[in-house]
Amino acid sequence: MKPEIKDQLRAIVGEANFSDKLIDLVSYSSDASQHLHRPEAAVWATTAEQVQAIVRLANQEAFPVTVRGAGTGLSGLSVPAQGGLVLDLSRMDQILDISITDRAVVVQPGVIYADLDNALAPHGYFFPPDPGSSKVCTLGGNVATNAGGVKGAKYGTTRDYVLGLTVVLGDGSIMRTGNRAMKSVSGFDLVRLFVGSEGVLGIVTEIILKINPKPRATATTLAVFDDLEDAGRAVSGVMAGGVVPSVLEILGRETLKAINQNTELNLPEADAMLLAETDGYTQGEADYQMERVVEQFTAHHAREVKQAESAAQAAELWKARKSCVPVLARLRPSFILEDITVPISQVAPTLRGVQDIAARHQVQIATFGHAGDGNLHPQIIYDAADHDESERVEAAVHDLFQLAVDLGGTLTGEHGIGLSKAPYMEMEHDPAAMKLMRSIKRVCDPNNILNPGKMALDG
Amino acid sequence: MKPEIKDQLRAIVGEANFSDKLIDLVSYSSDASQHLHRPEAAVWATTAEQVQAIVRLANQEAFPVTVRGAGTGLSGLSVPAQGGLVLDLSRMDQILDISITDRAVVVQPGVIYADLDNALAPHGYFFPPDPGSSKVCTLGGNVATNAGGVKGAKYGTTRDYVLGLTVVLGDGSIMRTGNRAMKSVSGFDLVRLFVGSEGVLGIVTEIILKINPKPRATATTLAVFDDLEDAGRAVSGVMAGGVVPSVLEILGRETLKAINQNTELNLPEADAMLLAETDGYTQGEADYQMERVVEQFTAHHAREVKQAESAAQAAELWKARKSCVPVLARLRPSFILEDITVPISQVAPTLRGVQDIAARHQVQIATFGHAGDGNLHPQIIYDAADHDESERVEAAVHDLFQLAVDLGGTLTGEHGIGLSKAPYMEMEHDPAAMKLMRSIKRVCDPNNILNPGKMALDG
Known about the structure:
Two copies of one chain form a homodimer.
Chain A: H1 3-13, E1 18-19, H2 22-27, E2 41-44, H3 48-61, E3 65-68, E4 85-88, E5 95-99, E6 104-107, H4 113-120, E7 125-126, H5 139-145, H6 152-155, E8 162-169, E9 174-178, H7 190-194, E10 202-210, E11 212-213, E12 217-225, H8 228-239, E13 247-252, H9 253-262, E14 272-280, H10 283-299, E15 304-307, H11 311-331, E16 334-337, H12 347-361, E17 364-370, E18 375-382, H13 387-406, H14 425-428, H15 431-444
Parallel strand pairs in A: 2-4, 3-4
Antiparallel strand pairs in A: 1-2, 5-6, 6-10, 7-11, 8-9, 8-10, 12-14, 12-15, 13-14, 13-17, 16-18, 17-18
Helix pairs in contact in A: 1-3, 8-10, 8-12, 9-11, 12-13
């Protein structure tokens, strides 16, 4: 990047919001994935107009712009794959309005999920997606990745809550689309075109989100299964049983083993454990639904069913689930956390398929995930410095995606395509869909300056 | 249309599925709006391949193709504004799969909403949008218009339930996008780009829908308000009160008066009536929520609050709401049913604004609608043969849209843009959004053969 361009960037955002120091550029080379690429400069923008000026400059001088929130992405979405500029939006962190009456909030993209959650709690409302990284991730990142979490089966994902956006498009124009109204069928659904678009179509500078009243009662139950097939059938049974649990998580044998080796939780070692939560405004409603869930657990031969009698007991049951990622990450130097998603009926075949893939390629894969919406997280733990093992991991990853697609599913339920899954896009999407995505990319970002190299759109 | 083209169409769909008889062409000139334009031929397609062949022929011979389901659209979406061919999909009426285990159904676009509802009922599941025309409208039409209904505030609209689509694009390619998995963030959200796209981007030939378990308990209450402001504040109060009613409908004074003049219902004549329904798996849950609703009705000075003690009483309370459209339509020779949608806090100002507009232009407007999601239906009743009155109606319609946009809302919550609202698109959407929509149209349908003249995309 020429010094004159850096001067122009300094002029746009101010000296304090520009850096080309090595320490910053190294920090901005990575996110929570294993991808690495160093940018040439970084800026913190604080207004839509600054973002617009930066995008215009990037078009003029032909340098890539990669937007970043908290950098918690697991697929390399905010890694500047082709260098250029990292545009950090974390200082656009204002909650602009909370309107309980409109059931809507207006936020800047750098607001942290947990900060919005804390601001809404006194009103008894919440923004439901609740991604795993909720304590640190930004709402702009949630929008860019259509973030989801443990409550997806009942509450959906970010997509279901975005009412309006202000976006700086790749050509430098500013577009407002959507508003605070709960419903609209006015023109194409541009809002949802940008939700999950990973910063390749435009840069979101303001977000209007729908919020929900928080349920007041929950019921929590854990069940242990000796047979994976039974656990899979229990998942299908629950989801077809006439209620929608707010949580239905699964932990596979490898995950349970790893947790026991690294914590004092003393979980039963079995093929699978299911954790269910139901909710409602009344305890009777939560309990009614949990009875239906437990019926299915029992009908499908759960070895053990533990119902929480108190919030403290529920928290105890949750501990195992919450320890998965850190415990597994600690076992070996490197990990890849996938999030293939399949039709609910295919949860058991998928879990079995993952075991087969691990055996075939001699890699260690522990699986857990959101069984209630078919979103499974096979976590591959390995040593990236071991060339031979890395090659086997790569082959296993390929087979995981093939498994999901063969079973009627998708490469990713919540982590996005980014760099990690770009090579597999055509495994899932037919030529007409790929062509349409690439055309939309060209329309929004004619010079391909926004997050180039992602989502297989350059082909 | 040249005879050779008609022969080619006959060859594609078979003689029995082609018509250029006057009676058919006249039938296909209109939908449930006041727009009229006669096509030159009509076909009933029964496979995606036939649709593809028709679209290819249309590109080659440059004739417009307007897709049609049941023709219940209120904005002229399926009126062949530039002649050419009407492509009727009502014979693609197969429910291809019901998988309760996957929480999904696969249907052809010509399946009638009520037929799916009946097929799901024995399983205790439903497809929630429930548009007013549910007894006759098709699911393809629901997708094309992102159909919604009385339960939008709690259950959302069609958009929230479409998991996957097979689409014949304007260039004649067949695209499959999405699948039975509950979640996906794999590439752009092409599914939702086509939901609500009114047949201008592609022709949907297969649909995968998410379904929900049906609530088992409901509570129903009606409240009467002497003061419109109070009713508006009650709506805001309910929606901010920590629960989401499954129904929160409003009927304005003019509507109540018209119902009383034309039925034996003997409704109280007041500024506004609200009808609320809550639901759950348990009666306790429905009742708890209704207590919160009634608290708000009472706090905002409802003159009368009637809670249904039985299903029969609830049905009685529903009668008034269900009679609105037919009763009002009977009063004068013509009607226009609008569906402006505003932030929930703006329901009262909107109702007042509608009264002002009626007075200013000396036209008769009766309003009712889905107050819980801010979606109001001002129904203008008039005589289209009266030129002077028609001009006043046109001016009033303009002002209704301006009112909605000024209050932070949208032209249409569920009826779509079509022909009726095309002239007002730029009132709501900024130049960047209009440009993007037009570019997407060109990408999907380069020769503008699909439903041309709609949604202000030709500009």
